[in-house]
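Human: We require from you a protein record containing the residue sequence and its fold in token form, and nothing else.

Assistant:
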Amino acid sequence: MTGGDARKAFTLIEMMLTIALITLLSSLFVWNITSLLKQGELESLQNELWGAVEKAKQSAVFNRQPHVVRFDEEAQAFRVSAGGKQFTFEVETDGFDEGVEIEVVFNEQLPKDGYRLVRGELVTQREIESVTFYPDGTCTPFSVNLKIGEYQSDFQIDPWTGSQLTAPEDDS
């Protein structure tokens, strides 16, 4: 044995650092879980949009008549309609936070060779209520903005295929 009375215990500073580290890690965990849940809600909204887009595209070609897709805010659903028929793609909101707002905005992409001045500003798109899919497989050139609370997703749709366009890569 050595000459001193050595204790085997933690100091106050070591305990405080351990508690601070556990608190930090748990808060990061809770924040990440909340973020993942919100992304899941946004994914649910995207899935319903793509279901409506696919139905409109296929039905327009098969039935040889234009089909319209719009978002019904009251019903929280995408509606596909043509010739008196209507298909509904409801967004599953059971797991959403109470009072969370869902916002879907369709924007028509204006032609690149043309331009529109709105209150002195050059604009490349304008907000529209609905999107039309035509019997030849094309659709209105549009982009869509999906928003649930503070989480949002924007993407552009190819008017020839009705699929999502990817952002061009930067060659620099």
